[in-house]
Amino acid sequence: MTAAERALEFVKEGQVVGLGTGRAATAFVEALAARCKDGLDVRGVPTSRTTELLARQLGIPLLEMSDVEQLDVTVDGADEVDPALDVIKGYGGALVREKIVAAASRQLVIVVGHEKLVARLGQRGKLPVEIVPFATALCRQRFAALGFPAELRRGPGNERVVTDNGNWILDCKVERIPNPGQLDAALRGVPGVVGTGLFVGMASAVVIQDGDAVEVRERAR
Description:
By secondary structure, this protein is an alpha/beta fold. It contains six helices and 13 strands. A six-stranded mixed β-sheet has the order 2-1-3-6-12-13. Strand 12 and strand 13 form a beta hairpin. The longest helix is centred in the first third of the chain and has 15 residues, at 23-37.
């Protein structure tokens, strides 16, 4: 059994399911589509245009986020997961929509490979923050003053990366973050910040693939 297949066990008949973005989320969407073809009745809410396109191609019925008050479960990937099940997301650029969908869900299930586990968030050295383009100079200045110099994310041709929301991403240089919740609040307090890649206290479970083994860690209630 793969981690994506194990994550399917959190999905029940008739539910509304948030569909994440990225490699792990893609594997889940493909697994969910196979279950839908076998008769599972669910509706999906995609967190990006890329995921929306994939889900439509695979035949998963979709809803608009604007039409949904609450989702039952969201399954998504992550770039870092710490022992408290707090995560960093956003290396793929969909962090704000991912956070909105996750916040509207009763459960957030994170699917990762073992290599994404860290002792403390920030270990990989990067924290994405989505910003309004008009605020770029101010945000970089304020982030630097907080001790987190940031660079504008660019694509392969050196073009600015534009999110599905029409915004830009600043990648903050970080080291191990002692208090992720405090940093999230400080960054969000800067005018022009739309959202950060820190998902603190949000994940209810993490499904971890380590070779052929799959482990599930659930947040204590």
